[in-house]
Amino acid sequence: MKVSVVITTYDRADLLPGCLAGLQVQDAPAADYEVIVIDNAGQEECQRSVESYGFRYIYEGKTGICYARNRGLEEARAPWVLYFDDDTLLPPDIVRSYISYLPQVAGGAAFGGAFTHWYKSDPPDWLRMEMGVGKFPGSNTSFGVLPESRYLIGCFFGVDVAKAKAAGGFSPGYGMKGKEVGWADETELQFRMRAAGMTVYYAPELVIEHLIQPWKCSFRGRLRYAYSHGKMSWLPTGDNRYSMASFVLDILRITFVVFPVTLLRWVFRHREWYWQNAALIVLTKYAFAYGRLSKRWKVSV
Protein backbone atom coordinates (compact mmCIF):
# COMPACT_ATOMS: atom_id res chain seq x y z
CA MET A 1 0.00 0.00 0.00
CA LYS A 2 1.35 3.40 -1.01
CA VAL A 3 -1.02 6.00 0.40
CA SER A 4 -3.79 6.26 2.97
CA VAL A 5 -6.45 8.74 1.91
CA VAL A 6 -7.88 10.40 5.03
CA ILE A 7 -11.07 12.48 5.09
CA THR A 8 -11.80 14.39 8.28
CA THR A 9 -15.39 15.50 8.77
CA TYR A 10 -17.58 17.25 11.33
CA ASP A 11 -21.38 17.41 11.03
CA ARG A 12 -21.41 17.58 7.24
CA ALA A 13 -23.23 14.43 6.22
CA ASP A 14 -24.79 16.40 3.36
CA LEU A 15 -21.42 17.15 1.73
CA LEU A 16 -19.43 14.03 2.56
CA PRO A 17 -21.07 11.71 -0.01
CA GLY A 18 -19.88 13.92 -2.86
CA CYS A 19 -16.29 13.38 -1.78
CA LEU A 20 -16.77 9.67 -1.11
CA ALA A 21 -18.40 9.13 -4.50
CA GLY A 22 -15.28 10.54 -6.14
CA LEU A 23 -13.08 8.20 -4.14
CA GLN A 24 -15.22 5.19 -5.01
CA VAL A 25 -14.47 5.55 -8.73
CA GLN A 26 -10.72 6.13 -8.50
CA ASP A 27 -8.74 4.31 -11.17
CA ALA A 28 -5.72 3.58 -8.95
CA PRO A 29 -5.08 -0.11 -8.19
CA ALA A 30 -7.03 -1.06 -5.08
CA ALA A 31 -3.90 -2.45 -3.46
CA ASP A 32 -2.18 0.95 -3.67
CA TYR A 33 -4.45 2.91 -1.36
CA GLU A 34 -7.08 2.86 1.37
CA VAL A 35 -9.74 5.37 2.39
CA ILE A 36 -10.26 6.32 6.03
CA VAL A 37 -12.94 8.74 7.24
CA ILE A 38 -12.35 10.31 10.65
CA ASP A 39 -15.69 11.51 12.03
CA ASN A 40 -15.20 14.23 14.63
CA ALA A 41 -18.91 14.52 15.45
CA GLY A 42 -19.94 10.88 15.91
CA GLN A 43 -22.99 10.95 13.65
CA GLU A 44 -24.76 7.71 12.78
CA GLU A 45 -25.68 9.14 9.38
CA CYS A 46 -22.01 9.74 8.65
CA GLN A 47 -21.07 6.22 9.71
CA ARG A 48 -23.79 4.68 7.52
CA SER A 49 -22.66 6.74 4.55
CA VAL A 50 -19.00 5.80 4.93
CA GLU A 51 -19.72 2.12 5.39
CA SER A 52 -22.08 2.08 2.40
CA TYR A 53 -19.08 2.98 0.26
CA GLY A 54 -16.97 0.27 1.85
CA PHE A 55 -14.50 2.66 3.47
CA ARG A 56 -13.07 2.61 7.01
CA TYR A 57 -15.02 4.67 9.54
CA ILE A 58 -13.36 5.93 12.72
CA TYR A 59 -14.82 8.19 15.39
CA GLU A 60 -12.47 10.67 17.07
CA GLY A 61 -14.04 12.05 20.24
CA LYS A 62 -11.65 14.95 20.82
CA THR A 63 -13.12 17.90 18.94
CA GLY A 64 -10.81 19.64 16.50
CA ILE A 65 -9.48 18.98 13.04
CA CYS A 66 -5.96 18.52 14.41
CA TYR A 67 -7.11 15.68 16.66
CA ALA A 68 -8.86 14.12 13.67
CA ARG A 69 -5.84 14.49 11.42
CA ASN A 70 -3.51 13.08 14.04
CA ARG A 71 -5.87 10.13 14.42
CA GLY A 72 -5.52 9.61 10.69
CA LEU A 73 -1.75 9.43 11.08
CA GLU A 74 -2.16 6.74 13.72
CA GLU A 75 -4.67 4.69 11.74
CA ALA A 76 -2.86 4.85 8.38
CA ARG A 77 -1.45 1.63 6.99
CA ALA A 78 0.58 3.34 4.27
CA PRO A 79 3.77 5.43 4.54
CA TRP A 80 1.98 8.50 3.18
CA VAL A 81 -1.30 10.08 4.27
CA LEU A 82 -3.21 12.20 1.76
CA TYR A 83 -5.79 14.50 3.38
CA PHE A 84 -8.83 15.74 1.47
CA ASP A 85 -11.51 17.98 2.97
CA ASP A 86 -15.01 16.51 3.08
CA ASP A 87 -16.30 19.21 0.71
CA THR A 88 -13.92 18.46 -2.15
CA LEU A 89 -14.82 17.02 -5.55
CA LEU A 90 -12.18 14.63 -6.85
CA PRO A 91 -11.35 13.60 -10.42
CA PRO A 92 -11.18 9.81 -10.91
CA ASP A 93 -7.44 9.81 -11.54
CA ILE A 94 -6.32 11.98 -8.64
CA VAL A 95 -5.11 9.19 -6.33
CA ARG A 96 -3.24 7.39 -9.11
CA SER A 97 -1.67 10.65 -10.27
CA TYR A 98 -0.66 11.55 -6.73
CA ILE A 99 0.97 8.16 -6.24
CA SER A 100 2.88 8.56 -9.51
CA TYR A 101 4.72 11.56 -8.04
CA LEU A 102 5.81 9.85 -4.82
CA PRO A 103 9.12 8.53 -6.23
CA GLN A 104 10.00 12.14 -7.13
CA VAL A 105 9.31 13.39 -3.61
CA ALA A 106 11.22 10.64 -1.83
CA GLY A 107 12.73 12.15 1.28
CA GLY A 108 10.16 14.93 1.35
CA ALA A 109 7.92 15.57 4.33
CA ALA A 110 4.83 17.02 2.65
CA PHE A 111 3.43 17.03 -0.86
CA GLY A 112 0.20 18.46 -2.22
CA GLY A 113 -1.55 19.89 -5.23
CA ALA A 114 -3.81 22.70 -6.35
CA PHE A 115 -7.53 23.40 -6.18
CA THR A 116 -10.18 25.43 -7.91
CA HIS A 117 -13.56 26.50 -6.52
CA TRP A 118 -17.04 25.04 -6.69
CA TYR A 119 -20.26 26.49 -5.29
CA LYS A 120 -23.47 24.92 -3.98
CA SER A 121 -25.48 27.57 -5.82
CA ASP A 122 -24.70 30.12 -8.49
CA PRO A 123 -22.67 32.89 -6.79
CA PRO A 124 -23.18 36.61 -7.41
CA ASP A 125 -21.02 38.17 -10.11
CA TRP A 126 -19.06 40.27 -7.64
CA LEU A 127 -18.03 37.14 -5.74
CA ARG A 128 -16.85 35.39 -8.89
CA MET A 129 -14.77 38.47 -9.67
CA GLU A 130 -13.27 38.49 -6.19
CA MET A 131 -12.54 34.77 -5.97
CA GLY A 132 -11.30 34.34 -9.52
CA VAL A 133 -11.03 31.01 -11.30
CA GLY A 134 -7.33 30.29 -10.95
CA LYS A 135 -5.57 27.43 -9.22
CA PHE A 136 -4.33 27.80 -5.67
CA PRO A 137 -1.84 28.04 -3.98
CA GLY A 138 -0.56 29.12 -7.41
CA SER A 139 -0.79 28.07 -11.04
CA ASN A 140 2.52 29.73 -11.92
CA THR A 141 4.56 27.23 -9.91
CA SER A 142 5.98 24.16 -11.62
CA PHE A 143 6.41 20.83 -9.85
CA GLY A 144 9.15 20.87 -7.29
CA VAL A 145 10.05 22.24 -3.90
CA LEU A 146 7.54 24.83 -2.72
CA PRO A 147 9.23 28.13 -1.77
CA GLU A 148 9.34 28.69 1.98
CA SER A 149 7.18 31.79 1.64
CA ARG A 150 4.30 29.62 0.44
CA TYR A 151 2.34 26.77 1.98
CA LEU A 152 0.27 23.84 0.80
CA ILE A 153 -3.46 24.13 1.41
CA GLY A 154 -5.12 21.72 3.83
CA CYS A 155 -7.91 20.58 1.49
CA PHE A 156 -5.31 18.70 -0.62
CA PHE A 157 -2.39 17.97 1.65
CA GLY A 158 -0.20 14.89 1.94
CA VAL A 159 2.47 14.02 4.49
CA ASP A 160 5.06 11.34 5.03
CA VAL A 161 3.70 9.65 8.14
CA ALA A 162 7.05 9.11 9.84
CA LYS A 163 8.22 12.67 9.19
CA ALA A 164 4.92 14.19 10.27
CA LYS A 165 5.12 12.30 13.54
CA ALA A 166 8.77 13.28 13.97
CA ALA A 167 7.74 16.92 13.57
CA GLY A 168 5.14 16.50 16.31
CA GLY A 169 2.03 16.05 14.19
CA PHE A 170 -0.74 18.63 14.02
CA SER A 171 -0.94 21.06 16.95
CA PRO A 172 -4.43 20.93 18.54
CA GLY A 173 -4.44 24.67 19.20
CA TYR A 174 -4.92 25.39 15.51
CA GLY A 175 -7.55 24.78 12.85
CA MET A 176 -11.30 24.22 13.00
CA LYS A 177 -12.79 23.10 16.31
CA GLY A 178 -16.32 21.95 15.70
CA LYS A 179 -18.19 24.95 14.32
CA GLU A 180 -15.55 27.44 15.43
CA VAL A 181 -13.65 28.78 12.44
CA GLY A 182 -9.92 28.17 12.58
CA TRP A 183 -6.97 28.12 10.24
CA ALA A 184 -3.29 27.36 9.89
CA ASP A 185 -3.17 23.77 11.18
CA GLU A 186 -1.43 22.53 8.04
CA THR A 187 0.57 25.75 7.67
CA GLU A 188 1.94 25.53 11.20
CA LEU A 189 2.97 21.90 10.65
CA GLN A 190 4.78 22.84 7.43
CA PHE A 191 6.55 25.65 9.29
CA ARG A 192 7.86 23.17 11.88
CA MET A 193 8.82 20.67 9.18
CA ARG A 194 10.87 23.28 7.36
CA ALA A 195 12.45 24.47 10.60
CA ALA A 196 13.62 20.88 11.11
CA GLY A 197 15.19 20.80 7.64
CA MET A 198 12.37 18.91 5.93
CA THR A 199 11.15 19.62 2.40
CA VAL A 200 7.68 20.49 1.07
CA TYR A 201 6.76 19.66 -2.55
CA TYR A 202 3.97 21.01 -4.75
CA ALA A 203 2.51 19.78 -8.06
CA PRO A 204 0.16 22.32 -9.70
CA GLU A 205 -0.73 19.70 -12.30
CA LEU A 206 -2.78 17.87 -9.67
CA VAL A 207 -6.07 19.73 -9.27
CA ILE A 208 -9.25 19.12 -7.26
CA GLU A 209 -12.33 21.27 -6.60
CA HIS A 210 -12.98 22.77 -3.17
CA LEU A 211 -16.30 24.19 -1.99
CA ILE A 212 -16.61 27.87 -1.22
CA GLN A 213 -18.86 27.40 1.79
CA PRO A 214 -22.13 29.37 1.68
CA TRP A 215 -21.22 31.46 4.72
CA LYS A 216 -18.22 32.81 2.78
CA CYS A 217 -20.36 33.84 -0.19
CA SER A 218 -22.01 36.90 1.35
CA PHE A 219 -20.58 40.37 1.85
CA ARG A 220 -20.66 39.88 5.61
CA GLY A 221 -19.10 36.45 5.22
CA ARG A 222 -16.11 37.89 3.37
CA LEU A 223 -15.54 40.27 6.28
CA ARG A 224 -15.79 37.42 8.79
CA TYR A 225 -13.33 35.45 6.67
CA ALA A 226 -10.83 38.34 6.66
CA TYR A 227 -11.24 38.87 10.40
CA SER A 228 -10.63 35.21 11.20
CA HIS A 229 -7.50 35.20 9.05
CA GLY A 230 -6.22 38.24 10.88
CA LYS A 231 -6.96 36.58 14.21
CA MET A 232 -4.77 33.64 13.25
CA SER A 233 -2.19 35.32 11.02
CA TRP A 234 0.49 34.86 13.68
CA LEU A 235 -0.01 31.11 14.11
CA PRO A 236 2.49 29.62 11.65
CA THR A 237 5.50 31.30 13.28
CA GLY A 238 4.17 31.91 16.77
CA ASP A 239 5.06 35.59 16.47
CA ASN A 240 2.02 37.42 17.82
CA ARG A 241 3.64 40.81 18.31
CA TYR A 242 1.04 43.36 17.23
CA SER A 243 0.73 46.39 19.44
CA MET A 244 -2.00 48.98 19.69
CA ALA A 245 0.40 51.40 18.00
CA SER A 246 0.77 49.02 15.06
CA PHE A 247 -3.00 48.67 14.88
CA VAL A 248 -3.51 52.45 14.83
CA LEU A 249 -0.89 52.82 12.09
CA ASP A 250 -2.67 50.16 10.02
CA ILE A 251 -6.03 51.89 10.47
CA LEU A 252 -4.52 55.22 9.40
CA ARG A 253 -2.85 53.62 6.38
CA ILE A 254 -6.09 51.95 5.30
CA THR A 255 -8.13 55.11 5.82
CA PHE A 256 -5.82 57.64 4.20
CA VAL A 257 -3.98 55.52 1.61
CA VAL A 258 -5.85 52.33 0.73
CA PHE A 259 -9.32 53.87 0.69
CA PRO A 260 -8.59 56.85 -1.62
CA VAL A 261 -6.34 54.82 -3.92
CA THR A 262 -9.00 52.10 -4.23
CA LEU A 263 -11.67 54.71 -4.96
CA LEU A 264 -9.53 56.26 -7.70
CA ARG A 265 -8.77 52.86 -9.22
CA TRP A 266 -12.47 51.99 -9.27
CA VAL A 267 -13.50 55.28 -10.88
CA PHE A 268 -10.72 55.63 -13.45
CA ARG A 269 -9.26 52.17 -14.16
CA HIS A 270 -11.55 49.37 -13.04
CA ARG A 271 -15.08 50.33 -13.94
CA GLU A 272 -15.81 46.60 -14.27
CA TRP A 273 -15.65 46.27 -10.48
CA TYR A 274 -18.90 45.97 -8.57
CA TRP A 275 -19.26 48.18 -5.54
CA GLN A 276 -18.79 45.12 -3.35
CA ASN A 277 -15.35 44.48 -4.86
CA ALA A 278 -14.17 48.02 -4.18
CA ALA A 279 -15.64 48.06 -0.69
CA LEU A 280 -14.15 44.71 0.26
CA ILE A 281 -10.65 45.76 -0.77
CA VAL A 282 -10.86 48.35 2.00
CA LEU A 283 -13.13 46.75 4.58
CA THR A 284 -11.38 43.36 4.63
CA LYS A 285 -8.17 45.15 5.58
CA TYR A 286 -9.95 46.74 8.53
CA ALA A 287 -11.35 43.34 9.51
CA PHE A 288 -7.92 41.69 9.20
CA ALA A 289 -6.37 44.35 11.43
CA TYR A 290 -9.10 43.94 14.06
CA GLY A 291 -8.51 40.20 13.95
CA ARG A 292 -4.79 40.65 14.55
CA LEU A 293 -5.49 42.94 17.48
CA SER A 294 -7.89 40.62 19.28
CA LYS A 295 -7.12 36.91 18.98
CA ARG A 296 -9.50 36.06 21.83
CA TRP A 297 -12.66 36.72 19.80
CA LYS A 298 -14.22 33.66 18.21
CA VAL A 299 -15.90 33.26 14.86
CA SER A 300 -18.40 30.44 14.34
CA VAL A 301 -19.83 29.03 11.13
Automatic annotation (TrEMBL):
Keywords: Glycosyltransferase, Membrane, Transferase, Transmembrane, Transmembrane helix. It comes from Neolewinella aurantiaca. CDD domains: Glyco_tranf_GTA_type. The lineage of its organism: Bacteria, Pseudomonadati, Bacteroidota, Saprospiria, Saprospirales. Belongs to the glycosyltransferase 2 family. This is Glycosyltransferase family 2 protein. InterPro entries: Glyco_trans_2-like, Nucleotide-diphossugar_trans. GO terms for molecular function: glycosyltransferase activity. PANTHER family: GALACTOFURANOSYLTRANSFERASE GLFT2, RHAMNOSYLTRANSFERASE WBBL. Residues 4-159 form the Glycosyltransferase 2-like domain. The chain crosses the membrane at residues 247-268. Pfam families: Glycos_transf_2.
